[in-house]
Amino acid sequence: MNLTSNLRNHVDSSLSIPVYEGSMLSIRSSSRILTATTNGIRYKSASSPQPRQPIETKWKFGKLDKKYECNYCNSYLKCPVQFQECRHRVCSSCFTNLIKKSQSCPTCDQTISREKVIVDNEFQKEIHNLPVYCSNNLNGCKWEGAFKAHMMHIEECEYTLIDCVRGCGLQYQRKDERMHIAKECLKNEIKCEFCNEQIVMADEANHLTVCPKFLVPCPSNCGIKDIPREKLTNHLENECKKHEVSCPFSDSNCGFKSLRSEMPKHLKESPGIHLNLMAKTISVQKKQLEILSELIEKQKEHIFALNSKVNSIEKQTSSQIIWKIDHFNIFLKIGKIQ
């Protein structure tokens, strides 16, 4: 696999992540979107989990008959209750809200009473027996059956999108769980294809912004596009023909700067200027050396004077004091008797 060929895209910053055709990053990114951030590049799932939406019911005979709809919530009737006054129905939960506000039928505006409402269990059974397709039929599920069985089927349907059981943030169809965990889960450990370090897949993009072996293009656009990041500084300072460099005689106050490829021409055309600059530099350095030599001599004299003082002090403090005791033997005998 040639990682350095067919550079797909890059920018001037050496910290950006160019993606090479055929690289593992390119393969893993095929189902994701690489999104630029202030810290580099991060993965964003093309199918990022969204807040759970109500499960869409796909009625087998097309649009649901109006008699099965609640005119208060505009959905199918759930645990329907019927008004005795007008025989219309609403969901039991909708009735609770309705009676607090208007106390009139949402279908015909007739006044209704809390006491004249019945729970319509038979109508509920009729709704439960309506034929439906699986909500995932467009994704490949061929199931069809009674509406009552639909919710139970959805909980087991192989085509239902579920969140990663390992919490990586991606979604997949239930039937693809093994493949996701084996190959796509962002919690999986992978080996960096550049430095061989073991990293978590979710951290791959961040790792590549600091990986020392990652191949980056020259920021000076010299044409080289496969420089290991750890060698980029050396490339710019010593090799890049498009990198601006200072004249080798800059220490002698030559202020000329140019691309590295143009520097030989400057050196060839300016030997006299450089010679004069070097002569001035040598003259200045010679004077500085003379001043330093004088300072060194003065320091030597000062050190010699300090040594003399130290020797004098040592003679005064290192003398021995002799204590003479008269009649020592007599005192010694008295001490022994006592």
Structural class: alpha+beta
Q: Give me the side-by-side strand order of the main sheet.
A: 3-7-8
User: What fraction of residues sit in β-strands?
Assistant: 15-25%
Relative helix content: 25-40%
Give the ordered list of helices and strands. HEEEEEHEHEEHEEHEEHEEHEEHHH
Total strands: the figure is 16
The major pleated sheet works out as: 3 strands, antiparallel
Count of DSSP H/I helices: 10
Global outline: elongated
Radius of gyration: 45 Å
What's the N-to-C terminus distance? 105 Å
Q: Which spans of ≥5 residues are poorly predicted at pLDDT below 50?
A: 1-24, 29-50
Give an account of the 3D structure.
The protein is of the alpha+beta class and 338 residues long. Helices cover 34% and strands 15% of the residues. The protein has helices at 24-28, 92-101, 121-128, 147-154, 177-184, 204-208, 232-239, 263-269, 271-317, 328-337; strands at 32-37, 40-45, 58-59, 80-83, 89-91, 117-119, 131-133, 144-146, 161-163, 171-173, 189-191, 198-200, 215-216, 227-228, 244-246, 257-259.
Secondary structure blueprint with pairings:
Elements: H1 24-28, E1 32-37, E2 40-45, E3 58-59, E4 80-83, E5 89-91, H2 92-101, E6 117-119, H3 121-128, E7 131-133, E8 144-146, H4 147-154, E9 161-163, E10 171-173, H5 177-184, E11 189-191, E12 198-200, H6 204-208, E13 215-216, E14 227-228, H7 232-239, E15 244-246, E16 257-259, H8 263-269, H9 271-317, H10 328-337
Antiparallel strand pairs: 1-2, 3-7, 4-5, 4-6, 7-8, 9-10, 11-12, 13-14, 15-16
